[in-house]
Design a protein that fits this description.
alpha+beta; four-stranded antiparallel sheet; 8 helices
């Protein structure tokens, strides 16, 4: 899958090749895709994890709430809206473009300096309902009932996550004070108690401890083909 071209005519970031289309998942009832190797028997706790994980459902526009929980910015123009997020690695550009394409959202990218790039969608009516829930005037804030699942967490990790020996750090981005409490509650609700901490570009949530990290790895699923091994959490 080629990258949608940059807005400024530069060649695509070339640290990693563009991702190949993922093979179709095995489909279960009700149109939900469930990986058979994770499903297990009805009483298997791995099955319960998979039902909330990134491999459990088809991609949906609602998953982009994971980007909005992090540093993505939203804007509205008439009856349309778009999302934009600055990422700091070339592999993230490739993965986000592919993830957006899987949801029927054409996207482009542009270099912003210091090795970083902006990935943004086109203005589209498809995004307006989601963005309208999150924007309160110019401020971004989670809507009532906001929750996270595996696909949303996966997008957040791709856009603004870092994996280290001390845990996984999920950056919220600047001007995040309105989001800290609701996002922390959403993380806790899926079994990921996390502690907010200051960071140079705004607060971030740190997930640590063997069980929460294993839970996180189960939820976000297997790494994208372009992600460096050290940039993705391991299961087990």
């Amino acid at each position: 899958m080629p990258l949608t071209g940059p807005v400024d005519g530069e060649p695509a970031p070339a640290l990693f090749p563009a991702p190949e289309p993922a093979p179709a998942a095995t489909r279960g009832g009700g149109g939900r895709a469930v990986r058979q190797d994770l499903a297990g028997s009805p009483g298997d706790p791995r099955r319960q994890l998979a039902l909330f994980g990134a491999e459990a459902t088809d991609p949906a526009v609602a998953d982009l709430a994971g980007l909005l929980a992090g540093p993505a910015e939203a804007s509205v123009m008439g009856g349309t809206a778009r999302l934009a997020v600055v990422v700091d690695d070339a592999w993230r550009v490739h993965v986000l473009i592919a993830e957006l394409d899987a949801r029927g959202l054409p996207a482009s990218w542009a270099a912003v300096g210091d090795g970083r790039h902006t990935v943004r969608t086109s203005y589209t009516r498809v995004l307006k309902p989601l963005v309208a829930q999150w924007l309160h005037g110019p401020a971004k804030r989670p809507p009532p009932g906001f929750h996270l699942d595996g696909r949303g967490l996966r997008l957040w990790l791709v856009a603004a996550g870092a994996v280290a020996e001390s845990g996984v750090l999920l950056r919220l981005g600047p001007a995040a004070h309105r989001r800290v409490s609701p996002v922390g509650a959403a993380l806790a609700a899926v079994g990921l108690p996390a502690v907010p901490e200051p960071a140079p570009d705004g607060p971030a949530y740190r997930i640590s401890g063997r069980r929460p990290l294993n839970r996180f790895a189960e939820l976000v699923g297997d790494p994208p083909p372009t992600a460096p091994p050290a940039a993705w959490p391991r299961r087990g």
